[in-house]
Specification:
4 helices; 129 residues; two-stranded antiparallel ribbon; extended; 34% helix; alpha+beta
């Protein structure tokens, strides 16, 4: 497995922990790493200039920017005939979502947010890898 796949599997596993399989928040394929870069002392103002040793910008770890896609199973897709007969230059019709679809998605997002805020979240992801 590639490093990204190992991370996304662990990330999804920890966030879906103690959730029934049919109600999982998302799958590993719904996680995308947008950016991975070194985290240096100068990147974070909480360390100030005192974190620079002998003028050297010490590497403290890694920064990851991760995106999770939440799927709306109730979205109404346009009929296949509309997609096939759209003609050149015409826009592809989008799926339609209703207000009633937002509450369950917001609930999932809130659950994910709370789990990400746990003090031991990163530790658990690293342990899972």
């Amino acid at each position: 497995k590639h490093a990204e796949e190992i991370f996304t599997d662990a990330y999804a596993s920890i966030l879906n922990e103690r959730i029934l399989p049919k109600t999982r928040l998302f799958d590993p394929g719904d996680v995308v790493i947008l950016n991975a870069s070194p985290w240096r002392a100068s990147d974070d103002t909480i360390f100030g200039t005192s974190s620079l040793e002998n003028g050297e910008d010490k590497e403290l770890g890694m920064q990851l920017v991760v995106e999770i896609s939440l799927f709306n199973p109730n979205a109404e897709l346009p009929p296949v005939s509309v997609l096939l007969n759209r003609g050149a230059g015409k826009e592809i019709p989008l799926a339609t979502c209703h207000e009633r679809d937002l509450q369950p998605l917001a609930s999932k997002a809130s659950t994910i947010h709370k789990k990400l805020a746990q003090k031991n979240f990163i530790y658990l992801v690293v342990e899972e890898m």
